[in-house]
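#struct-pred

JT: dropping the chains for the assembly here, can someone run the whole complex?
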Amino acid sequence: MRPLVAAELVKLRSTRSAWIPLVAGLLYAVLAVVAATSLAGHGGNPPLSAGWLPELMRGSGGRFLDGAVLLTCIILTAGEFRHRTSVTTFLGEPRRLRVVAAKLAAAAVTGAVVGLVAQVLSAVTSAIVLSTHHVPLDWTSPGVRGALLTVPLLAALYGVLGVGLGLLVRNTAVAVGTALMWALVIEGVLPSVTRAPGLTRWLPGNAANAVLHGAPWTTETLAAGAAAALLTGYAVALAAAAAFATAKREIGTATG
Amino acid sequence: MSTISIEALTKRYGAVTAVDDLTFRVAPGRITGFLGPNGAGKSTTMRILLGLARPTSGRATIDARPYAELRDPLRHVGAVIDASVFHPGRCGRTALRIAARSARIANARVDELLELVGLGNAAHRRVGGYSLGMRQRLALATALLGDPETLVLDEPATGLDPEGVAWLRGLMRRLAADGRTVFVSSHLLAELAQTVDDIVIINRGRLVAHAPMVELLDRTDAASLESFFLEATSTHSGSSS
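RK: done, full complex below.
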């Protein structure tokens, strides 16, 4: 299994289009800190204080980074079918579930590492900005530890979701479009359309927010632990569906 | 020494029967040409043999085992199924290294094969800038990565220049002389006639002819492989011989 995971990681390293969202996500981790701190004390925003550090780390490494990892994993996975590299992949390892498992593992590792790097970048930027404003830094606060844990965890789960979607849909544009539609439109309007406002907390985006911000259990949000379990359930379900579809479908080529 | 066996193989796509109760064997130590008009079912048969497609019924095996049951398949079977199976943004060396990595094959073998197929100087270039012939050479290098006993080649000469075609012919002959099984499809009948030992011809998914080439031409008094092929595929709409 390790050679397969290593091969998947080489694919990531050697695909420039897959790197663009990740680089954007890491840049965002830095820029979000700069933007948030520059607005502190203005326009009704609270002034900088020791309590800002965990908030900056969570905010800068949150949903944007999850989206970036999701896009990267979709581009890599669906791209295998677009460029027909899937033929070479499955000739090298015809046991398809092993290939799926390797892709999921590589995506989870990539998400966790990128999440951790984003947190390091965010922490360093936050430390520089807060120090220049003479704000004390408390690295031992539960909020900082929580951000260091939840941001990589969420990015890993979104990596798994991206591989699942890419393997199921197999078309890069459709898979990316589906993910964007879900995040930007469907998740927002679904509770209204179904006239079930309580549905909100069970949707992936809100679950990810609850994990990231450690929300208490209310009518609109799940508790962080329950939300993490729910999001893991979504990732496992999508991965299982992708594995089933990959095992059943044919691997296409240009010729008949 | 490995044998390819196609046993009562049938593949249907909805109402279309691409391969229809096809049976033949490909012997080791020989080059077997696989011929048929467009849409005859050659590529489908090869894809089923390589585990990329599933048969509706029947079996396609290598050494009595389906491809999916082979452990370290690249060390048993090398395949060229399509020249366009490489990411255009990766360089040739990386494309080959990815395939090698998953099969635990050393990078030294990658460099050796890039030289063998004549891509040593282009290994650092992106595959998107390769000509069809260069991609075909890269596909052949991928097929040879594991020094396999069996080669399954679908139109391997497509895009190759005359020097490349001659090189490919020599390569297949050397591999067959080593006792390896070489199963090759092509539309280049004149080229195949110079290369192959045995011929399998299919039409509309069914077997039309299967025999050593010399025997086939002697038996039918055909002037050439091309004339035999044209006659066989125009008069046989389904019967096998």
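JT: nice. Chain A touches chain B at residues 3-4, 6-7, 10-11, 14-17, 79, 83-85, 87-95, 250-251, 253-256 (CB under 8 Å). Chain A has one domain: 2-172+182-248.
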